[in-house]
Amino acid sequence: MALKRTTPNKKAASDLLMDIATGAIAALLLVIFALLVPTI
Asked: Is-above-0.70 flag for pTM?
């Protein structure tokens, strides 16, 4: 029972972590793109 109750929390935490990671990668790519464009 306890395991079932903590599983959704773990899933939510991992989903949140994935969202943060995706956002960070997107921001990083945006910065790299912005820095590269003037040189092209």
From this structure: no
